[in-house]
Amino acid sequence: MDHPILYRKRVIPNECILLKDDLILQSDENTIVTSWKAIHPRPDLSHGYSCYYLKRGYKVSKFYRADSTLMYWYCDIVDYQKGPEENSLIVQDLLADVVIYPDGKIRILDLDELAEAFEQGLIDEKLMKKSLISLGNLMDAIYENSISSLEAPIIKAISSSVMP
Predict the structure, then answer these.
(1) Does this model's pTM top 0.85?
(2) Is the dihedral of CA 11, 16, 21, 25 positive or negative?
(3) Which residues make beta-bridge pairs with 32?
(4) Which class for 90: exposed (0-12), middle (13-18), buried (19 or more C-beta within 10 A)?
(5) Per residue in 55-83, pLDDT tens?
């Protein structure tokens, strides 16, 4: 599979941007692994890696500080759509997120935004259901296997990209 062109589409705020600077480390029919620098750099967020789970409806990212210490894993609930160009993919953020801190603490975020987007007609019932089902499946995967199984494709892609 050729590496696709990736777009990030958000509902709140309404935007769709080309992820032109993301480096695709690996891609196949199940996953895409990328390395990236923060689009909007912050003092606490510098760079990271993401694994797009194409058949599961979520993306798992490792967020790093400038000194390369792990901030946390950030999991986005997403939907995938064919993009405007040949071999392009639009990754639509479905608002619900899960943060896993290095100490194991887990937080589910932005369910209020998901409800607001539905109430305002920014997402339809189908996407609302998809978001909640994907969130449930992600939480099951985290509780059953911890974050280690979900970050495995990232570790593998990083290892193979630095090997000669």
Answers:
(1) yes
(2) positive
(3) 27, 52
(4) middle
(5) 999 999 999 999 999 999 999 999 999 99
